[in-house]
Design a protein that fits this description.
single chain; Ribosomal Protein L13p, Chain: A; alpha/beta; two-stranded antiparallel ribbon
C-alpha cells in the first residue's frame, strides 16, 4: 500500500483571477466599510491567498458623498499634510473634504490601512471611487 501525501500547490502570477466588487458607501459607517474594501483589495477573501503575491480584486465604491462617520467626527476631524517647507502645513476639515473631494476621504482611509509594502500602489490602483451611484464599470460587474 502506497501512502499519498496531499500538498498545496503554489499559485503562479498567471493563475490569479480578478473579480469586480461593488461597495455602497451610504449604507455603513466609514470605519466598518474600509476593512471590507481592504480585504477585497488584498485578496484575503480567496482560498488561494498568499501574502507575497498581489491576489486582490477590483473594488468600486459608490456614493462617497453619503459616507457616514460616528460621533463628532463630522465637525472635528481634520486631514493634515505637510510639504516639508516652512509654512507648508495644510489642514482641511472633514466637512470641506466631503463637499469638495468625497472620494479622497475613502482613498485616504484605505491607503492608511493597507500594509506599507511594494504591493500598496498596485492595490490602490484597483480601487475606483465615485461620489454618486453612477460609474462606467457596469459591464465588468456583470461578467462574473
Amino acid at each position: 500500500m502506497t501512502h499519498v501525501t496531499q500538498t498545496t500547490l503554489p499559485v503562479k502570477e498567471k493563475q490569479i483571477q480578478r473579480f469586480w466588487h461593488l461597495v455602497d458607501a451610504s449604507s455603513r459607517p466609514l470605519g466598518r466599510m474600509i476593512p471590507e474594501v481592504i480585504r477585497l483589495l488584498e485578496g484575503k477573501n480567496k482560498v488561494t491567498y498568499v501574502p507575497h503575491l498581489d491576489m486582490g480584486d477590483y473594488v468600486i465604491v459608490v456614493n462617497a458623498k453619503k459616507v457616514l462617520v460616528s460621533g463628532k467626527k463630522e465637525q472635528q476631524k481634520t486631514y493634515t499634510r505637510f510639504s516639508g517647507y516652512p509654512g507648508g502645513l495644510k489642514t482641511i476639515s472633514f466637512q470641506k473634504m466631503k463637499e469638495d473631494h468625497p472620494e479622497e476621504i475613502i482613498r485616504h482611509a484605505v491607503s492608511g490601512m493597507l500594509p506599507k509594502n511594494k504591493l500598496k500602489k498596485k492595490r490602490l490602483a484597483r480601487l475606483f471611487i465615485f461620489p454618486d451611484e453612477n460609474h462606467p464599470y457596469e459591464t465588468k460587474l456583470k461578467e462574473h
